[in-house]
Each structure stands twice: as structure tokens, then as C-alpha cells.
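Ticket reopened. Same input as before:
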Amino acid sequence: MNKKLLLSMHRKMLTIRLFEEKLNSLFLQGQIPGTLHLYNGQEACAVGVCENLNDKDWILSTHRPHGHAIAKGVSLQSMMAELFAKETGCCGGFGGSMHVGDINKGSVPAIAIVGGNIPIATGVALSFKMQKRKNVVCCFLGDGAINEGAFHEGVNMASIWGLPLIFVCENNLYGASTRIENMIGVEKLTDRLKGYGVKSFSVDGMDVTKVYTMINNLIKKIKFGQGPFFLECKTYRFVGHSRSDTNKYRQKSEEIFWKKKDPIIRIEKKLVKEKILDTLSIDKIHEEIKHELNQAVKFAKSSPHPKILNMKKYVYA
Amino acid sequence: MSMRNNKNSTQKMTIAESLRLTIQQEMERDKKVFCIGEDIGIKGGFGGAFTVTLGLSEQFGHERILDTPISETGIAGVAIGAALSGMRPIADVQYSDFLFCAMDQLVNQAAKLRFMSGGKLKVPMVMRAPGGATTRGSQHSQSLESYFLHVPGLKVVCPSTAYDAKGLLTAAIRDDSPVLFFEHKLLYGSKGNRAEKGSISPVGEVPLYDYTIPFGKAKIRKKGKDVTILGKLRSVYTALEASKILDQHTISCEVIDPRTIVPFDSKLLFNSVKKTGRLVIVDECTKTGGWAGEISALVQENIFKYLKKPVVRVTAPDTPVPFAPKLENFFIPQAKDVVKEVLKLF
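Engineering reply: fixed in the latest deploy. New output:
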């Protein structure tokens, strides 16, 4: 894997991690409204996928969307401003944490109803095919979403029409506090896909190079007219489901096991080992990103609130 | 030159024929327009539950008259996704009752994506939904317009004539917002063994050229001065029938057809009620929490002082739609019910 790609993926994953850490601290200080579903731990999934995509490839996201949007290139300023509920936010302050995205970057403002994005992704992929656009669609979903009816309908329709679509399932083992294995009647989550005639794969979702390579191969197959595909990324969230969750339903030993797989530490070790970066230059990157984030916070804080008169304006096109 | 380009040319047709012609013309005009739904293009099939898309797959192929599995969430979701990314889908769910299977997609997604994106997304889709009681029992007979009245972000269209069906569907297809397009099963005018018992089947002159009827423009179906009767879809005909009987009582009724209930032409209604001082709303939706109650509140908030009598609602009762024809006839507001209520106002 080339140096430039590794560096880019490292920077993006680190940006997501530091963005989430910044948000969490701002949230605890009472500076931002609402709730947060943080992405810490799952960065390799978003970055490994989106690094393969351009602005005309679209992603659909979930209630845990910050990582997806940043990986797809939505600006930190517009993301931060959205979380501060400001007019300069990527959704003008009308979306909030669970709906970030920027269609000009191919990041559809996120859909926070579990599974709700799946048939919509199928529709986008159908439309790409009808318009003979050569782009692909990646639909992020959690393990919990596979038990929604919308999953069944959306995946089946993508299958019968052979659409240029990859369902990227980030299996972090839990839907909120509920373990996925207790909620499916099959041994492995990917067993479900046999029933839809959709080829499925599993990958270590804590290793960005593996996710990247897998998606790269699947996109090549799509360019040859195959698809859709389903990719399970085995991953773990290092934080609670949302703001008030202290993870009492998880074993400490399990958390330690997964934290040893931290995708950012892993890529940093690789970069040092392959002599692409040394520890000093890694520290420098951390500082650069922190500076960018501080600038984004400054921008967000100084931005105006959304206007009441725009409420009516945005109801109908 | 095709007949259709002749600006003066019109043809007598039913609502089903008018809708079919509209879809055909819009699909010829704009490659982005396509149909998606259950049993809409199968060779030897139905052409949709009420023949509206019959024959279109032969002209446009199965990619643009796209048959789906029985998956209403999927149909709505796919239509939304296609609409977001440059297409203009016309989705079809056979019976409006099935919209409930797609509620998340319609209410949480289609209606809100523009708003949640700060006005950056648009969802130009039409969801066609046949409604109305036709002795099919409680799950294939409902009138659901009132449910969607309560969802900011959706437009709700209710054509009652062949002319309006074309102008309103053309406008709906070209609209950049999601439109729920309710069609009444008894108004289609399907022929032969597809004809509905008790059908009203209005046949009207429909221009062959394309035209639009702007949303939010109601139509006075009959001029009058003593009482205003407001009704949509089939209830327009119930109101007209009642007005004829009331003529014999020398009560002159003004019958108004809103044509779209979101947006709603309150100006035309208010002007009529200011003149007559009396308002009766006829509706096949059930009473509580329905459209008739909403209009009643709107009138009383705005022009209370012009009212000579309280606003009256003649609607379906608060029960599921019954199957037995005798009970169903009781359920559906009839002209005699309207007459009875109007007479009480004098």
C-alpha cells in the first residue's frame, strides 16, 4: 500500500477520533445541544471505505454519522457548526448530530431511523444505474439494522436489480445495549445474505488497510457489472451508545481486548515501522489536527443561529 | 404531427385514461420520469391495481415501468433515493391502505429530508394511492388523506375529474416536493370486468396537450348563495347530488372542490363562506382528527363573524370501514345525509 494513501488514511482516522474527543468535552461542558453517538473505535470502517470513493460516489449514513461524513470529505468547520446548531453548519443547523452530511461531497445527510437509509441507498443505486452513471453507492449500517424490515426490502431489491451498491455493516456487537448474537437466529450475521443472493464478506474493521483493500476489490467487481455486495466490518465502539451510556452491559475484559486493536495506534505503529513517520512527526500531525479543530470551534461559535423565517422555507421545495 | 401537439384538441376520457395519458406524456417528455410499483408492467398483468399503467411497459420497457416485489417500504424508499439523485419517480402502492407499510419512509424520510438538510436536498417524487370504500373490507377501503395532512413536507392532491387528474398529476410529477396523489377507486371509470360496482366514473373532455393545474387552487363546482358545501374526491359528487335535491327546497348551494388539500386554497373557501354564512364539509375520512375538523377550525379562527351557523361535518363515523354493503353505505357520507344537515341550518 503506497505511502501517500497510508498517510491520508491515518490523518483522516485521527481527525475523526480527535473530532469526537473534542465534541465529547464540549458536550460535557454544556456547550453543544442535543445528544451524541460517538464513533471512537470504528474509524477504520469509515476511512477504509470512503478513501475508495470520489465526490460523485454517494454514501448513506446512520445515527452515528460523524466519522462517515468526515471520511467522505465534509468540512470540519461545517460539521462543527452543525453540532453547535449554527446556520453555517452542513445542514444549516437544521440537522444536528444525527443528520450531518453534504451532498456536494456525496455524503447524503444522515438518516437516523435504524435501517431507514437502506431502501433509500437502493434507490440511489438504481438511479445511478438508470442514468448510466459509473459511480457506486456505499450504505453504512449497524449490526442492529439487519433486523429491520427495511433491510430485508432494500437488500432484496438491490439484489434482484443487480445494483452498484455495497452495504457496509459495522458490526460493533451491540445494538445500543443488546448483543447482536442474541437477536439473530443464524450463526453469523453474514449468513443472512445467502437468503438474498447477495455475496457477503467479513473483514477486520479495526484495520484500515484491510477495509480499504476489500472495498477496492468490491468496487472493481462492480465496475465489471457485479453487485450488490455486503461487507461486515468487525469493530467495536470505545464509548457508550449515546451520551448517557456508561456501558454497564459490557465486560471490562472485552473492552480491553478491543482497545488493544485500536485502529489508530495500529496504523501509527505501521507508519513508524515502515519508516514513513517517526513519533515526532506523528505528534506534529496530532497538533495540526487539534489546531484545525480549535479553528472549527471558533468558526462555529462565532456563526449565527439559524433563522426562524427559514423554517417554513425548507419544508417544501 | 401527433394529435397531442394540437393545442385545440381534446378527447373524452375517464380518470384512469387521463392518468395513463399523463404518465405517458410526462415519460415521453422527461427521461427522468419513471414508474415503480407492484404489478404495474407485467405482460398479461393488471397495469397497476386499477389499470392506470396498462400498456405503458410496452412503450417504455420494464426499466422505466419497474415492477417490484410486494415491499411498500422498499418502493417508497427506492423512490426517495432515486428522487434525491436526479430521477422523478412515480410510485404506486395499489391500495392507499398499504401506505401504512411505508410510513417511516414517507413521514420520517420523504417529508423531512429537505428540512433536515437545511433546504439542500429535494425529493421530487409522486406516490399514487387509490383510496375509498368499495366493499373490500377494512384494509382495502380507507380514505387516508387526513393522515398525511398532518405531515409537514408532504403535498396532498385529490383529483375528482378527468381534466383535473391530468393537470394535477402533471404538476405533481414536475413538483420538487414529495406529493401524495390520492385517487378514488369509484372515480376511475375502469371498463369491463375491472369496473367498480357503484362507480361514478366521471368522463370529461381532456386536452391532449400537456398542462398543469397549480396546487392550492380550489374550484367552484356549482355556484350558490345560501350554503357552502366543501368536499373532495367522491364527496364532490355527493355534494353535487345533495345540492340538486336542495334546489327543490329553494336552498342554493355553492359546491367547492379543493383539488389539493395541502396546500389548501383557504382564500376561495373563505370568500364563499363570507357570502353564504354557512359551511358543510363532506368527507369520506373518519371524523375525529380529520380534514373536516381542520377546515372547521380554520374557518372559525379566520372568519367566525361571518358564520350564521356552526360549521357542520358530514363524515364517515369513527369506525373501521365495514364490509357489508348495507353497513358500508351507512359509513360513506350520502347525499341524503348532507341534505338532512343542510336543512337544519335554515
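The radius of gyration of chain A is 19 Å. Strands of chain A lie at 58-60, 137-142, 165-171, 174-175, 178-179, 199-204, 229-234. Please confirm and we'll close it.
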